[in-house]
Amino acid sequence: MGTIVVVEDDTNIADLVDMYLRREGFRVIQAGTGETGLAAIERERPRMLILDVGLPGSIDGLEVCRRVRAKQTLPVLMLTARDGEVDRILGLELGADDYVTKPFSPRELVARVKAILRRSDGTSGRNEVLMAGRVEVDVVRREARIDGEAVALASKEFQLLQFLAERPGRALSRQQLLDGVWGSGWYGDDRTVDAHVRQLRKKLGDALPLSTVWGMGYRLG
Ligand code: CA
Asked: Which residues have CB atoms below 5 A from the ion given as ligand 1?
C-alpha cells in the first residue's frame, strides 16, 4: 500500500493512527516535529503525509505543508484542533487535500486517507502522460512538464489540470470542476476554481490552451 509519514507530537494520537494504517497495509513512519517530519519526507518519499497543525519547535504543521507544497504534489491530510483553521488549510496558500478535526475517529481518518489516495491515484488503466497543449500531464508521477522541465504545482492545481486534460475540448462548469476535483462533500465556491485556474495560467502560461467559457466555466484545448 505504500508509506505514509505521520507528523504528530502527541504520541497517543500518532500511535493510534499508526496502528490503524498498518492494519490497512500501509508502512508508517512517525515524526514528532516539523524538522524530523521534513527529513522523513525527503528520505522516505512517502505516498502521503498526515500532518498535525500544532507542532513543537520552530516549524509548525502549516509551515511543513507550505514547504512540501513548494516542492512536490504529495497528498496531505491535516489534523487540526480548531475548525477556524480549515479555510487556510484547504485554501490556496497551503492547499492540503483534506483535514480532520480532533478528536476524530481512526476509522474516519482511514476512510479519508483512502479517498485521497483514490482521488490522487485514480489513474489505473488510463494514459500515463496526457498532453494539454505543450504541457505534459504525467498522472503517475503527478508532475506537469513543459519541454521536459517540471513545473511545481500544488496538489489541487495538478488535480484540476488532470481533470481538464482528461476531458479535452469539453466546456466544464465550475460546479463540475468543484465536484470532480474537490469532491462533492466540500463546500467550496466558484472563486476556488477561478483562483486555481489563475495559478495554472500563471505557472503554465501560453503552453496551456485553457479558455474561459463565458458564464459557465472553462475548456482545455
Ligand atoms: Ca500537536
From this structure: 9, 52, 54
**Interatomic CA distance for residues 171 and 181, integer angstroms:** 15
Sheet of 217-220, strand order: 171-173, 217-220, 210-213
218, 180 Cβ separation under 8 angstroms: no
- Same-domain status, 83 and 40: yes
Q: What is the pLDDT of residues 77-127, one digit of tens each?
A: 999 988 777 777 776 678 788 889 899 999 889 988 988 888 776 544 445
Q: pLDDT (tens digit, 9 = 90+) per residue, 173-220? A: 999 999 889 876 666 778 899 999 999 999 999 999 999 999 999 999
78 CA from centroid of ligand 1 (Å): 11
101, 123, 145 - which closes a domain: 123
pTM for the whole thing? 0.59
Report CA(62)–ligand 1 centroid distance (Å). 12
Q: From the CA of 6, how far away is ligand 1's center (Å)?
A: 12
205 φ/ψ sector (left φ>0, alpha ψ -120 to 50, else beta) = left
Question: Per the structure block, which three cell numbers stand in for 126?
Answer: 488510463
Total count of domains within the chain: 2
